[in-house]
Design brief:
By secondary structure, the chain is mostly helical. 61% of the residues lie in helices and 1% in strands. The chain has two domains: 1-24 and 48-255 and 401-421, no CATH class; 277-394, no CATH class. It has 22 helices and two strands. The chain has helices at residues 2-23, 47-74, 77-94, 104-113, 121-137, 140-145, 147-153, 164-170, 173-186, 192-195, 200-204, 209-222, 228-232, 236-245, 283-295, 297-310, 312-316, 320-330, 341-347, 353-390, 410-414, 426-429, and strands at residues 273-274, 399-400.
């Protein structure tokens, strides 16, 4: 427990230090100060653009249906792979990574907390449709519909298995990322998922240099650590994992009875295959420990909420108004700095410094509440993780972990059992399933 807590609070500390550093940059586009400049009138979106968004929804539905069919019925890894290549070309390079189900989290969060914002129907559909499929067929969206996953999947060449403890620690980052994305969207500060998407710049060929480097690093690491962004960063994967856990149908390693050949174990580069287990230790002792961890859930939530409230000030600096107000208060001479575009844009807006400071205080109070909720959420994640480690359910076969399985289908090709009651025995036949 102490080790897990240590890593989680280290993560929170890292974000606390890093976000203000990322925030130290000018946020507004360079304004036009030439005399006689007129602000152009906003125009209605091109009907063709709106039509293409609905075409995207249709394509997403077709792709998810195909992936589900290949995974559950056809049991074809090659079918899943080539469908993912199509998704990479269409949703990635042709549609330039937008509309994106991963980024739609922010649209939904903003729509919930800002009554003046109307979420586009297509963004809402991109958010909901993969979750509905995950509830019935598992994470088929991750298998071949998400271009972020597809571009990582094609570079998996020499995957190595990370230590279990390291996977569990890194597995907390997506929860932190999800909470921060919702917090910043709810406070209308930033869409951090889109801003720091490591691959969208590659899809559009227009990323800043550091983002190209970040995307390249993810792909380079992905040669050896399969899908690092999907497994250890993607916030949408958290929601898909929750839905997939209760999926009525899910990809299976074998179409019939497991023969315990263990050939599937090294086939999964994501470590998402659960091995057979029997109940471990004294049953009464396990039950008592489980009850203790359940009772500690409110304590974890309170500790996490309090820790989150302590970092609400540095987290709020990511908001442009808060950052600008602090800069002007701490350095009054900036009001006369002709080279500071942020300050010049504010001074031409007609607002006073007092109005800016008051608005910044309101935003900071929102961050205080939001940081409490974020911290409590992370505390509950730790608590439920401990509960999961303390529960043991008897399992006789090698089966995919529904939460972490990306439904890629690699394990199916390694299974020598091809049909029900086939009586196939690899040791007798001498056949190589590879």
């Amino acid at each position: 427990m102490k080790q897990v807590s240590k890593y989680i609070f280290s993560l929170i500390g890292f974000v606390t230090v890093s976000l203000p550093v990322w925030a130290q940059q000018q946020r507004f586009p360079k304004p036009e100060f030439e005399t006689g400049y007129q602000q152009p009138q906003p125009t209605v979106p091109d009907p063709r653009m709106l039509l293409m968004e609905y075409v995207d929804v249709f394509v997403l539905l077709v792709v998810l249906l195909l992936i589900s069919w290949f995974a559950l019925k056809k049991r074809s890894r090659s079918g899943i792979f080539w469908t993912s290549v199509f998704s990479l070309l269409y949703f990635g390079f042709y549609r330039e990574g937008c509309i994106c189900s991963v980024g739609s989290i922010q649209n939904v969060a903003l729509a919930i907390f800002d009554p003046t914002y109307t979420i586009p129907l297509t963004a809402l559909l991109f958010f909901l449709i993969p979750l509905v499929f995950a509830l019935f067929t598992g994470r088929t969206f991750c298998a071949g519909a998400c271009p972020l996953g597809a571009i990582q999947d094609i570079v998996i060449l020499k995957p190595m298995e990370l230590p279990k403890w390291l996977q569990k620690v890194l597995g907390f980052i997506p929860y932190l990322y999800l909470g921060l994305a919702v917090l910043y969207a709810a406070t209308k500060s930033e869409f951090i998922i889109c801003r720091y998407d490591p691959f969208v710049g590659i899809f559009r060929f227009d990323a800043e240099f550091q983002m190209f480097v970040l995307g390249g690093l993810f792909l380079l690491i992905g040669i050896f650590v399969a899908r690092p962004y999907c497994r250890f960063f993607c916030p949408y994967g958290v929601l898909l994992g929750w839905m997939s856990k209760f999926s009525s149908k899910h990809l299976t390693i074998t179409p019939a009875e497991c023969i315990q050949c263990k050939l599937c174990v090294p086939s999964c580069p994501f470590g998402a295959i659960d091995e057979p287990i029997v109940e471990q230790g004294n049953r009464r002792k396990n039950v008592n420990r489980l009850i203790t961890y359940v009772m500690l859930l409110p304590v974890w939530a309170l500790i996490g909420g309090f820790a989150g409230s302590l970092v609400h000030v540095p987290l709020s600096k990511f908001n442009s108004n808060v950052y600008l107000a602090e800069q002007i208060i701490e350095h009054p001479e900036l009001k006369n700095d002709p080279d500071n575009i942020d300050v010049r844009t504010f001074m031409t807006s007609g607002k006073t410094v007092d109005q800016l400071v008051e608005e910044a205080q309101q935003i900071r109070s929102q961050f205080y509440v939001g940081s409490w909720i974020l911290g409590a959420f992370l505390g509950l994640v730790i608590g439920f993780s401990l509960i999961k480690l303390s529960t043991f359910r008897k399992r006789n076969d090698y089966v995919p972990d529904k939460v972490n399985c990306l439904s890629c289908g690699r394990c199916m090709d390694y299974c020598p059992v091809k049909k029900e009651n086939s009586g196939f025995n690899p040791e007798v036949s001498g056949q190589n399933p590879n």
